[in-house]
Amino acid sequence: MRTFFYLLSPFGLRLGYVFCDLIALIVFYLNTEIVKISSININIAYPSKDEEDRKALVKRSVKQSIRSYYETLFCLSRNQTELNKSIFKVENRYLYTQTNRDFGLILLSAHNRSVDLLLNQLTNQEDVTAIFKPIKIKALNKFIRKSRQKSGSKVFETNLTGVKELFSALKRGETIAMAADQVPAKKMGVYEDFFGRRVYTTNLIPSLHSKTKAPVVSVAMHSDIYTNQLYIRYGTKLTHKEGSPYDAKLMNKEIEKIININPEDYNWEYKRFKNQEVEDKTIYK
Q1: Which residues lie across from 193 on neighbouring strands?
Q2: Is 0.85 surpassed by the pTM of this model?
């Protein structure tokens, strides 16, 4: 399986991006689903932007999304030395290294660039427990899960068992990681503001924070707007305070901050606004 992924990503990231950009031109010419959904989401998120600016952002975003797919293929087929070289800097690392771990640590992230490459770098620092949505193809799902489980790190599916494992890891004073920007399963979320729309949002991280008192530190992968080099940025650290609850609204605000650093890095092709408090069945029609 690793050889298969290598054949799909035979070049380094710099040269691979060139081929990704050629694919992006075809994707735009065919006006594929990724273009349509990205356009809808960006228009919702940035209504105050000029129309031409939004169109330009859609083009850059789709190009970067295709590049992020290549980054994932690259991550699943290269050794750790090569993967470490793909990250040229880490910003605000002190938020991670200087955080008290008596109650564990919650790393909050979003689907910025390749989640697999980010998780690879996180697990290269220490053991991390994470959850993921399983892939329907069993052989592929098994390989990716194995790839994500490095050394003592553990990955579980997004179900009740996975939630219990996250809670147990925090109670042991360990680190957990979760991309919290996707639509959760029924009865596992709340409606909360996200880019001006009240959308169904996971409340798992706020719940774990409340029950364990584990601090929450945001982290994401970004690309430098001038060089296109990848870097990791730790954002905000939030510690538990009695009488000052951390809820899904604050979590979504932090995710918005992550996205707004460089909006084209975000994977806008996901139907994030499909489940709103005020139902809109035509939003992605």
Answers
A1: 198
A2: yes
